[in-house]
């Protein structure tokens, strides 16, 4: 039997991001508690990233880390740090400094443009049959088509749109790499969670009149909009 060496590979994960405008611990605790109350199983030991872009002063990262972990989340990093002092303080607290990948481009002198090659089209990933509890299906770089239902506790993820020809009872995460034009379609809505490009909605916030109905979900002004398919 041939043993393989250890290796590092790239992978894509869906992370919840908490945007904070000040470091008031009471406000942060109240927000986290409200989210856990909505979906205790989903958020139990869930990884969390803090967006500190709107903070002017360097917060007490040790205290924030203790606070987040006391609410059963796991703080894996921060994003949006605007100063080296903030980055240094986060690293000293054992918190990773992450990049959102949205840097403003520097102005450059105009150059003669060359026609770019047409990118290869990646066909949609098609899953035939139900997606069972505990199962995860991920369509990297493309859309996902599920010819069946998605059970509670199951998760379907796509970098583009998700089409479910059945009942959605689990979690559907479209636009996993930030595609705000991604959509979610399903024949019957009963989802635990809907997410497009990081904006999510839990089961208790779903419109009652659309439960068990065919729907189309899209991102509209940084909020999820759910419309009936007639």
UniProtKB/TrEMBL annotation:
InterPro entries attached to this UniProt entry: CAP/MinC_C, MinC, MinC_C_sf, MinC_N, Septum_form_inhib_MinC_C
Domain Septum formation inhibitor MinC N-terminal: from-to ranges: 7-73
GO biological process entries: cell morphogenesis; division septum assembly; regulation of cell division; regulation of cell septum assembly
Gene3D superfamilies: 2.160.20.70, 3.30.70.260
Highest taxon above the source species: Bacteria
Similarity-based family: Belongs to the MinC family.
Protein name: Probable septum site-determining protein MinC
């Amino acid at each position: 039997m041939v043993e393989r060496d250890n290796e590092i590979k790239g992978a894509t994960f869906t992370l919840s991001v908490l945007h904070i405008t000040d470091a008031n611990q009471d406000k942060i605790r109240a927000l986290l508690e409200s989210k856990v109350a909505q979906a205790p199983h989903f958020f139990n030991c869930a990884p969390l990233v803090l967006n500190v872009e709107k903070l002017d002063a360097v917060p007490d990262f040790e205290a924030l880390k203790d606070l987040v972990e006391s609410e059963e989340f796991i703080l894996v990093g921060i994003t949006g740090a605007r100063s080296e002092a903030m980055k240094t303080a986060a690293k000293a607290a054992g918190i990773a400094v992450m990049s959102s990948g949205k840097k403003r481009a520097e102005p450059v002198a105009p150059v003669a443009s060359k026609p770019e090659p047409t990118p290869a089209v990646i066909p949609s990933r098609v899953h035939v049959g139900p997606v069972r509890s505990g199962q995860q299906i991920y369509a990297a770089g493309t859309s996902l088509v599920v010819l069946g239902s998605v059970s509670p506790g199951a998760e379907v993820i796509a970098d583009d749109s998700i089409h479910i020809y059945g009942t959605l009872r689990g979690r559907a995460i479209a636009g996993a790499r930030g595609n705000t034009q991604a959509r979610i379609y399903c024949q019957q809505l009963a989802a635990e969670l809907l997410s497009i490009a990081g904006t999510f909605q839990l089961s208790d916030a779903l419109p009652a009149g659309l439960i068990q109905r065919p729907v189309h979900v899209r991102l509209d002004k940084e909020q999820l909009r759910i419309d009936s398919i007639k």
